[in-house]
Write a structure and sequence with these properties.
Blueprint lengths: L7 E4 L4 H9 L4 E3 L9 H11 L3 E4 L6 H6 L1 H22 L2 E7 L21 H16 L3 E6 L2 E2 L6 H11 L3 E4 L3 E2 L2 E2 H11 L5 E4 L6 E2 H6 L5 E4 L27 H10 L1
Parallel strand pairs: 1-2, 1-3, 3-4, 4-5, 5-10, 6-9, 7-12
Antiparallel strand pairs: 8-11
Helix pairs in contact: 1-7, 2-4, 4-5
């Protein structure tokens, strides 16, 4: 079947990634948070059964990492339980599910992670996302779980825009130089998602290529970034030191510097 003919349903269509997915899947049924609260199990299943999609893409999530520490119940309901409801609905109508997970399901004790590495989250956000992944795996077979990292894009709060804003207000912007990962452009991730539809079921690591620290990333965005340690810049949620996702299953995306340049030009 040609992807363009596939009937697609998108949850989280109003978010940063969801907005890009709506461009890639223009004929999809698009549901934002105002249209449907994915914590409502009956409504989620009813919506999937009513639309009878071939593919469901879940881009809805609670992604405020530090806020998750204070709002555990919300995090586990949105990131943990709700993907299970979506999986239930998909299994009832025989739909394929594409769902987005995170590098934060890992503890950062290794320099890099492949898809088969065992997870061990060190914060509530990571733990809630892992719960969602496991609920999907336990409730259906035809899933594509996409782990990604350091996501930024045009339609949501993100690191790039925060750096640009702070740079204009402060002489120096302190950024940690001891956490390493792969920045990923939502525009690129949405387009790559289209390739994954129809590929073998399982878990995929999809990021832009190239590894950097948050400080190196910031230095590519603004001129007045200065390095500091995580100890100097404490956050409510503990972050993994290394959360580099290695893609072993699909063709690589472009380097993060190329993607960033395009985003900044836009």
């Amino acid at each position: 079947m040609v992807v363009g003919e596939i009937k697609t349903l998108i949850f989280g269509a109003g978010g940063m990634l969801g907005t890009e997915l709506c461009v890639v899947f223009p004929n999809a049924v698009k549901l934002a948070h105002n249209d449907l609260d994915i914590r409502d199990r009956e409504k989620v299943i009813e919506t999937i059964e009513m639309n009878e999609p071939d593919v469901v893409i879940n881009a809805a999530a609670y992604t405020a990492v530090d806020d998750c520490e204070d709002n555990k119940e919300l995090a586990y309901n949105v990131n943990g339980a709700a993907p299970g409801y979506i999986a239930e609905g998909c299994s009832r109508v025989g739909a394929e599910l594409v769902h987005y997970s995170t590098d934060y399901i890992f503890d950062g004790s290794k320099k890099e992670y492949v898809e088969a590495d065992p997870p061990n989250p060190i914060n509530i956000y990571g733990s809630s996302k892992l719960m969602g992944d496991m609920n999907i795996i336990n409730k259906m077979d035809d899933y594509r779980i996409i782990r990604t990292s350091w996501l930024y894009g045009a339609n949501g709060k993100n690191f790039v825009d925060t750096m640009l804003m702070l740079s204009g207000k402060m002489d120096k912007v302190k950024v940690v130089n001891d956490q390493f990962g792969k920045p990923t452009y939502a525009f690129d991730l949405a387009r790559k998602t289209k390739e994954l539809v129809g590929l073998p079921a399982g878990t995929y690591h999809i990021t832009n290529e190239g590894v950097c620290s948050w400080y190196e990333f910031a230095s590519a965005i603004i001129k007045n970034a200065v390095p500091c340690t995580s100890h100097e810049f404490p956050r409510k949620a503990k972050r993994p030191k290394y959360s580099v996702l290695v893609n072993t299953k699909t063709s690589p995306m472009r380097h993060w510097r190329d993607a960033l340049a395009e985003y900044l030009n836009k």
